[in-house]
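anyone else get weird line breaks when pasting these?? whatever heres mine. first is seq + tokens for prot A
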Amino acid sequence: MKKYIAGILMINIVLASFPLAALAQEVPQTVGDAQALGLNILQRLPNAVRDIWQNQALPIWRSMWAWVKNLWDNTLGSKVQGLWEKLWGLTGQKTPDVKGEFQKEKQEMQKDLWERFKDLF
């Protein structure tokens, strides 16, 4: 096992000392070449960032969200909900309907802009 780890480390050190991207890209010799290279990079940068965000970052965040939501629903959610209802029961008041209030707010936010403007007056 130690031999495998040592071999992998040696390969990583060798590959890091000879960057492959530097072999494929020539060093610009003039200011015009440098400017063309810079503009080329700047033109490709937004698409590269968007591609990385959509194909790598978002799937990771979505899977983390699904995992946490699943963990919450299966383990902690019901316990916290029961504790919440017990605490509200001690005050002698009825438990607030958070989900119902959320649905009402959601419907109000989905109203047309003109309807909300008319409601102001």
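and prot B, same format (seq, then tokens)
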Amino acid sequence: MEFKEWLVERMAKRELNSASLAEAIGENQPTIYRILSGETKNPRLHIVKKLESFFNEEFSSKKEVSTDSTNEISINQYHDVRGAMGQGLVLRGESGQITGWKVTPEWLSKNVPSNTGNKNLAIVTGFGDSMRGMFNSGDPLLVDSGVKSLDYDGVYFFRIGDEGFIKTLQRIPGEGIRVISENKKYETWTITSDMDFEVFGRVLKVWKSEEF
């Protein structure tokens, strides 16, 4: 077993990401990320010792990689996880739903190395054509529901009143939050302070389908 695999398994059990683990052991996030990505194959001894101490377990390269299905991580549909969508939220143009995924810790560490925790990851099915070019209606989106504020510009899942949106949000000082669609047929508009605005999560990844 490689050290990277050992670390991924233990992070998954405690639902840790690279940022939270780095903070817990007093190291920089890039140090942990390089181990998880495979860039650092033989971490420095003091890093290994810190991680062994944190997880209260020594690393041994002789251990077998477990193939037990319990190592799979379930990522569920957003409202099944949080219930925050509530009753009456409108997702206009929604075309069916993707109810969940099962992924391995290795897939998660390679593809979603930075998030607020595995338990906060959720699937939202893309809807409508306003973001066509980034994803199509019915495509899966991976959302970090632990993000509840607009700390920096990006693609977010949010609501205004009882209507849900997935759009790029850009902060404009003195004006508000600009809402940008990927499909240029849709005009840009602005969220102002008097609107009933709530962030459900930040979109980490989208998968764009193509028909053949």
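btw re prot B: The radius of gyration is 20 Å. The domain at 3-55 is CATH 1.10.260 (434 Repressor (Amino-terminal Domain)).
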